[in-house]
Design brief:
By secondary structure, the chain is α+β, with helices and mostly antiparallel strands. It contains three helices and five strands, in the order E-E-E-H-H-E-E-H. The protein has a three-stranded antiparallel β-sheet with strand order 3-5-4. Strands 1-2 form a two-stranded antiparallel sheet. The termini are far apart.
Length: 85
């Protein structure tokens, strides 16, 4: 418990136990195999992961990069022309 300036007891904030790492633009780009310029362009067009600005830095939550990559997955197409044995 925390005591406030009025002498009342207030609940302490819960401890941070599960923090979602944040990556800078160049780190996120390297993670997905793009150039920073390419990732910035995708994000600007609304086709990339959701970004945020922290001061002068463009940053991405690692979980958002993962979510975006999963959304890019496409099922494998079946080969046409039948079986070739």
């Amino acid at each position: 418990m925390t005591i406030t300036s009025g002498g009342r007891r207030a609940a302490a904030p819960p401890p941070v136990t599960d923090f979602d790492p944040v990556l800078r633009l160049n780190q996120a780009a390297g993670l997905v195999g793009l150039s920073p310029k390419g990732l910035r362009a995708l994000t600007a067009r609304g086709e990339g992961p959701t970004a945020m600005r922290v001061g002068r830095f463009v940053m991405f939550r690692k979980s958002e990069i993962h979510r975006w990559l999963l959304s890019c997955e496409q099922p494998a197409r079946k080969a046409q022309g039948g079986d070739h044995a």
